[in-house]
Amino acid sequence: MSAIGRTTPALVGAITLTAALILGPTPWALADQTITTQPYYAASGIKALHAQGLDGSGIKIAVIDGPVDTSVPELLGVNVITKSFCDLKYAPSGIAHATNIAAILASPDYGWAPKATILNYTHPVDQDVPAGMTMSDYVNGCPMDSVDPGFLINQALNDGANVISMSFGMGTGMAESSVIGNALTRAMNLQVPVIASAGNESTTIDWSGLAGGSTILSVGAVDGTGKKAAYSNYGTGMSLMAYGGPPLTYRNPDSKGHLTVITKGDTGGTSMAAPMVAGALALAYRNGLTQPATSWNGYYSTPPTVPQTTKPPGPLRWATAPSTRNCWLTPTHPVTAPRCQT
After folding, report:
1. What is the spatial distance between Cα 292 and Cα 224, in angstroms, rounded to a whole number?
2. Could you tell me which residues come within 8 angstroms of residue 308 by beta carbon, excluding any fewer than 6 positions away?
3. CA distance 74 to 100
4. Does the pLDDT of residue 208 top 70, yes or no?
5. Alpha carbon distance 21, 87 (integer Å)
6. Whole-number Å distance between alpha carbons of 249 and 55
7. What count of other Cβ atoms lies within 10 Å of the Cβ of residue 203?
8. DSSP-assigned letter for residue 238
9. Does the residue 333 lie in any domain?
10. Between 126 and 96, whose confidence is greater?
11. How far are the Cα atoms of 54, 67, 86, 106, 269 from residue 125, in angstroms, in the given order?
12. Structural domain boundaries, residue 212
């Protein structure tokens, strides 16, 4: 079984949804090669929700990942707006990754929220770096912080995103980034859920990583049996689980990098579970849930005020506004008390 995922450089109540990715206009994927359904679709009740008018209309879902190939037939008619702040050449596997995520969110045939607007913010990961180069070499010349997830989260918030989805895996060390921490604090105060995949290493979630942050909805994966997928990370840093496969039907690049290969069956990853949650939240917004952040563990509608002089090890650190104190959320589940440094 192949686990789908993107790994990022070091910069950077449980609910179980068991119901159960070349940039440009060239249409390399032919219409008769369209993916028209997914294993989770019928059992999830998505069709019935759409029939009630819950289809993501008026909702903006930010996808921070590789660039989405909007030419694939699964995304025909879907409103995808790609925003790149640095001119980089992405690996075909990364493009496929982002494209499949966008299809889970908004494919007219099997997407959760086909009427939503997908805001695609391009973000490089290690797999995109050409052989013989470092990540620093690869992004050399990019505007400062333009490929930092924190910068991209802020851009998504500036653009009015209602939900933000990221599938980087654990992202070890990302919690130490002040750019990310401040962006997550802003998202929390604006009550915009930030979803992240838990990772595919079949290990406990690293509290120093993005997926372990208490202001993050960290998503693990269940497979077609409804049990934890063998690849999925786990632990107290996880917020919830969703269907990630296998089985899943996935669009892959061919030998020329064009997304013409359709793989059925033995495929899955927490990267695909995260957009399941983002899509479900988009429908919740449409159903009148205008402040979902207050309903999810780890989110607060107002900045915390609990003083603490000693920073506990590991958890995500963030800055309150308008106070100048540094605050973080303790690595417990459910979160019981934030801590702030006076």
Report:
1. 28
2. 339, 340, 341, 342
3. 9
4. no
5. 18
6. 22
7. 13
8. -
9. no
10. 96
11. 34, 12, 14, 24, 16
12. 2-306
Question: How many Å apart are CA 241 and CA 220, to the nearest integer?
Answer: 5
CA 212, 268, 99, 36: dihedral to nearest 10 degrees?
-140
Neighbours of 141 (CB within 10 A): 9
Q: How many CA atoms lie within 13 A of 232 on its CB side?
A: 31
* Residue 313 falls inside a structural domain: no
Q: Are 217 and 277 in contact (CB under 8 A)?
A: yes
Query: Cα–Cα distance between 291 and 329 in angstroms, integer?
Result: 20
Q: How many whole angstroms separate alpha carbon 292 and alpha carbon 162? A: 10
Number of domains observed in the structure of the chain: 1
Q: In angstroms, rounded to a whole number, what is the distance separating the alpha carbons of residues 317 and 311?
A: 9
Q: Are 328 and 320 in contact (CB under 8 A)?
A: no
Whether the CB-CB separation of 150 and 182 falls below 8 Å is answered with: yes
* pLDDT, tens only, 165-185: 999 765 555 555 678 888 999
Give domain status of residue 114, yes or no.
Answer: yes
d(CA 159, CA 166): 16
Instruction: Name every residue whose Cβ is closer than 8 Å to that of residue 148 and which is 6 or more positions away in sequence.
Output: 11, 12, 177, 179, 180
Based on its alpha-carbon atoms, the radius of gyration of the chain, rounded to whole angstroms, reads 19
Is 277 exposed, middle or buried, given 0-12, 13-18 or 19+ CB atoms closer than 10 A? Answer: buried
> Is residue 106 included in any domain, yes or no?
yes
CATH no. for residue 11? 3.40.50.200
Q: What is the DSSP string of 71-124?
A: TSGGGTT-EEEEE-SS--PPPHHHHHHHHHHHHHHH-TTT-S-TTSEEEEEE--
User: What is the pTM (predicted TM-score) of this model?
Assistant: 0.79
- Residues 70-93 pLDDT 10s: 999 999 999 999 999 999 999 999
For a pLDDT cut of 90, what percent of the chain falls above it?
A: 57
CA of 145: how far to CAs of 129, 153, 172, 188, 203, in Å?
Answer: 17, 11, 18, 21, 30
DSSP string for residues in 255-320: TTS-S-EEEEESEE-HHHHHHHHHHHHHHHHHTT---GGGGSTT--SS----B-SSPPSSS-EEE-
Rounded distance between C-alpha atoms, residue 32 and residue 9, angstroms: 38
